[in-house]
Design brief:
about 270 residues; Serine Threonine Protein Phosphatase 5, Tetratricopeptide repeat; about 75% helix; elongated
Length: about 270
């Protein structure tokens, strides 16, 4: 086939895709199916466009009540995704993309979706399901999960976050400590515990957690930068406190504990 003939063929199949897409939008589902089926057949050598045609085709078949055909089309879609993984770069309008994502969730097994990196995010995690519950039910669900999977650090971490949302520093320390027992390098758990310890005035323990955080993690959390300054002042470690005072974020300067620490630092004359 000459380049000119090939280009004309590509133009034809791409036009079928455009026509099929427009027919789907106009709710002319049978016309959409005819055009999109031709497009998908002719775009085999262009995986991204083939996958786009298959996605719209599955939507049209579903809307037309052709469920078995839609399932077969989704199977072809997954075959293309397995071989070429073009879904992350698919160019669908937002409404159609949302509808197709919903279709995948409703007609494809979660275990299958999880096998494809670009589709795994369509599966709602247990944390996401629990997060939708009312606060008291949410806490009970996290506690039940922690009992069911006692070696999984994500559940005590979730409970620590839940406690932090209600300023329950004692519970934050309890659950973040459990998370750190299971996963000592978890920066989120350590950050939660550091702030809770500082809130309760346990300066030495708070400083130990703050010092254990990577510098980049600490600097990215303004609350903890201010906590560290307050800890250093309360521990009367004046040299590091003066250094820390210079980097307290403006967003934290109005905190009462920060203001008190600034006053204490100002009252302490540098040695020599």
């Amino acid at each position: 086939m000459s380049l000119v003939v090939a280009a004309r063929a590509d133009d034809f199949y791409e036009e079928r895709l455009r026509v099929g897409r427009a027919a789907l939008e106009a709710k002319q589902y049978l016309d959409a199916i005819d055009n999109l089926r031709i497009a998908a057949f002719g775009l085999l050598e262009k995986p991204a466009m083939e996958e786009e045609a298959l996605a719209y085709l599955a939507l049209a078949q579903t809307a037309a009540g052709h469920g078995l055909d839609a399932d077969a089309t989704l199977g072809r879609f997954l075959d293309v995704e397995r071989l070429f993984a073009p879904y992350a770069h698919l160019k669908m309008d937002s409404a159609s993309d949302a509808a197709f994502r919903a279709l995948l969730r409703s007609r494809v097994a979660e275990s299958t979706l999880l096998a494809y990196p670009a589709l795994a995010g369509l599966v709602e995690t247990e944390e996401q399901r629990i997060a939708k519950l009312p606060p008291r039910e949410r806490e009970k669900a996290y506690e039940a999960a922690a009992k069911r999977e006692p070696k999984n650090a994500r559940w005590p971490l979730a409970l620590a976050r839940e406690a932090a949302s209600t300023d329950d520093s004692r519970a934050v320390i309890l659950w973040s400590s459990k998370a750190l027992e299971l996963q000592p390098t978890d920066v989120d758990a350590r950050a939660l515990r550091a702030h809770a310890l500082a809130t309760r005035g346990d300066w030495s323990a708070a400083r130990a957690d703050l010092d254990a955080l990577p510098a980049a993690e600490l600097s990215a959390r303004p609350v903890l930068v201010a906590d560290r300054f307050v800890c250093l002042v309360e521990l009367k470690d004046w040299g590091p406190a003066r250094e820390a005072a210079r980097v307290v974020p403006a967003s934290q300067a109005g905190r009462a504990d920060v203001a008190r620490a600034q006053q204490k630092l100002a009252a302490e004359r540098p040695a020599g």
